[in-house]
Design a protein that fits this description.
Blueprint (H helix, E strand, L loop, with lengths): L5 E4 L4 E4 L3 E2 L1 H4 L8 H13 L4 E3 L8 H9 L8 E6 L1 E5 L2 E4 L3 H15 L4 E6 L8 H13 L3 E7 L3 H10 L4 E5 L11 H8 L2 E5 L6 H4 L21 H21 L3 H10 L5 E3 L6 H9 L7 H10 L10 H4 L17
Parallel strand pairs: 3-4, 4-5, 5-8, 8-9, 9-10, 10-11, 11-12
Antiparallel strand pairs: 1-2, 6-7
InterPro entries: Aldo-Keto_reductase (IPR050791), NAD(P)_OxRdtase_dom_sf (IPR036812), NADP_OxRdtase_dom (IPR023210)
Protein name: Probable aldo-keto reductase 2
Keywords: NADP, Oxidoreductase
Length: about 350
């Protein structure tokens, strides 16, 4: 198997594998945690194949995914670009409790360093924007962590264009993480152009539509009782039946091209530009190998247009994940003049 190549992520000097590995599903949200031994073997296999951009968060578990990565990185730390996140304290009354307070930022970073058992985090993201605190205040503390050598690069996740600009003015943002796939394309209007204007790399999570573009409607048959996808609108029976036609057409094009539907959907994300790093998650080595195969799938402009037309927003039924969880996606953070801390 060909080794995965490298790309520059953002304009601050970070280099990562052209495809990353989202580690969330190993420990949380997609059913029960997977066996530690198997997940460490998977991570080592990914690294040996050249996938060195590993993505986690303190909320995955919570905490257990970072601990898993800490164990997996023993002896191979220098081979990887390690990304983790802070900012989601938990769920309160069905809504995310988000915090960007400077003391919380620092405490979260120290705790992640300890769990990961590393001296420095390569890419540290604010997982969700705290709209109660000006982004400049949160960024000020992150900037200090860079200066102290505890983190190398700063990222944001699911931030609006105006928040990205304000944050970037305090300290350069290296990467923005967002959901981007054939059925999650809202980011193309404002967010992606803003990142490109400012030289910010783009990290696409859930590039396979949370498994939909791997196996279509059948994906729900494997959801366990505590798989959070069971509650997402697009996976509800009335919407899934409609969305099946999109998967069927993606599958037809994939068959024509001699690849799997998941490889085709992932190749579409790769074709968005050399500043984009998708981070599909998986818990199986065979799926990881298949995802790497997407890098070899070449798409013509005509094929790109065909894919985009069949998966346009009006062709997909059911609100997207970010639309559903709009509680943290507010376009503006407060003015500094209102901040009295």
């Amino acid at each position: 198997m060909d080794r995965v190549g490298r790309i520059k992520l953002g304009s601050q000097g970070l280099e990562v594998s052209a495809q990353g590995l989202g580690c969330m599903g190993m420990s949380a949200f997609y059913g029960p945690p997977k066996p530690e031994k198997d997940m460490i073997a998977l991570i080592h296999h990914a690294i040996n194949c050249g996938i060195t951009h590993l993505d986690t968060s303190d909320i995955y578990g919570p905490f257990t995914n970072e601990i898993l990565l800490g164990k997996a990185l023993k002896g191979v730390r220098e081979k990887v670009e390690l990304a983790t996140k802070f900012g989601i304290r938990g769920i309160v009354d069905g809504r995310m409790d988000v915090c960007g307070d400077p003391a919380y930022v620092r405490a979260s970073c120290e705790a992640s360093l300890k769990r990961l058992d590393v001296d420095c985090i390569d890419l540290y993201y604010q997982h969700r924007i705290d709209t109660k605190i000006p982004i400049e205040v949160t960024m000020g503390e992150l900037k200090k962590l860079v200066e102290e050598g505890k983190i190398k690069y700063i990222g944001l996740s699911e931030a609006s264009a105006s928040t990205i600009r304000r944050a970037h003015a305090v300290h350069p943002i290296t990467a923005l993480q967002l959901e981007w796939s054939l059925w999650a394309r809202e980011v193309e209007k404002d967010i992606i152009p803003t990142c490109r204007e400012l030289g910010i790399g783009i990290v696409a999570y859930s590039p396979l539509g949370r498994g939909f573009f791997s196996s279509g409607p059948k994906v729900v048959e494997n959801f366990t009782e505590n798989d959070f996808r069971r509650n997402l609108p697009r996976f509800q029976p009335e919407n899934l039946e409609h969305n099946k036609s999109v998967f069927d057409r993606v599958n037809e094009i994939a068959t024509r091209k001699g690849c799997t539907p998941s490889q085709l959907a992932l190749a579409w994300v790769h074709h968005q530009g050399s500043d984009v790093c998708p981070i599909p998650g998986t818990t199986k080595i065979e799926n990881l190998n298949q995802n790497i195969g997407a890098l070899s799938v070449k798409l013509t402009p005509e094929e790109m247009a065909e894919l985009e037309s069949l998966a346009s927003s009006d062709a997909i039924r059911g609100e997207g994940y970010i639309t559903t969880e709009l509680t943290w996606r507010v376009s503006e953070t407060p003015d500094l003049s209102t901040w009295n801390a």
